[in-house]
What does this fold into?
Amino acid sequence: MKYYSTRDKNLRSPLKEAVLSGLAPDGGLFMPEEIPIQPLPDLTEKSLLEIAFQIGLPFICEDISESAYGDMIERVFPFDAPLVELDSNLSVLELFHGPTLAFKDFGARFMAELMSYLIRGDDSPLTVLAATSGDTGSAVAHGFLGAPNINVVLLYPSGRVSTLQEKQLTTCGKNITALSVEGSFDDCQRLVKEAFLNTELRKSKRLTSANSINIARLLPQSFYYFRALAQLKKRSDSAVFSVPSGNFGNLTAGILAKKMGAPISRFLAATNQNKIVPEFLRTDLYTPAPSIPTLSNAMDVGNPSNFERLTDLLGDTAKDFAPWITGHFFSDEETLGAIREIQERYEYSLCPHTAVGALALAREQTPGIVLATAHPIKFTEEISRAGLDTSHIKMPEQLKDILNKESTAISMPADKSAFFEFLSEL
Ligand SMILES: *Cc1c(COP(=O)(O)O)cnc(C)c1O
It folds into this structure.
């Protein structure tokens, strides 16, 4: 299968180029030229691995053998996405059982394994650069940990990530190096961009970026929609999914799943005050804005990068979106209220992002499935600020390990000459 650019359908690239370059040559995002329809009855009660095999294979089978793909997904998904039914109208799809406790593990681990496979046999080592404001970097790092012939360099803003996030970024070791940059997240992103623009550096180093718009991160996110449906006790004809959204990768993967034939009736785009897409759905105007900081900070996005993919899949107007997506947005106060209410009613803890998703279902009074995007233990500071007790939130094993490890990071001024010098000596 080839991958076209959202800005020019005639511009097609093979999988290796699409995955290693991330962005199409004209600045568009890559999309698969075909969305194979899946024979659905086959999927009931299927495991995540069986689904990943069946759904994923057609997208990459020209570049990887069936058996290599089977081995690959076993390494990518040593965890599941369990569906927890809180009551007959509200189920939660827990996407936080990977090593970094957020759904980004699904995409980042798949991308890392696929990149490693696609460069096998190439001579020059690959250097993966990732600027991170927290969660993405650790998912990427854990995905690439120990990959042969690949070095990963993470850049994070010094003092601006949580203690737990910093532990996750700085305790990998092996082929992962964490740079604590004396600056903001924007400085980190700028340094990465400058490295890509520097022709001299690019002559001596093979660079790639592990950023969130990579098609290899999007595809595996469609698997767990099928996995959720396979676990439904009562087989319904069609389910509603509520998706806590920021860059809209998760929701775009859901649309792919529906186009592949998953019995999904529609999606709720649940956002915090960064309500660009719900506003587009209401007014037909897409107006990017600077991001507003909120409690559900992984969704603080003022210009969602996957919007371009959504218009490619659905059409350009709010009317085109309407049969597929309904938008809702919520305040931090409402988010804390939802965490409290779900805790009291079901003794079940939500992270602030998942709470936004639960609010959207409640507003529509429709039965459905909320995607739980992160483990609540990652957000106990925010939850306790609501005056809620967090002592019952159990520490998962993955985290206990990380907290006991030694941190190692290199301090770096937000200055390109220091960064380039570091890279050339790597
Ligand atoms: C990244 C992230 C989101 C937003 O997902 P998108 O695919 O960018 O819409 C939501 N919740 C958590 C915990 C995240 O890390």
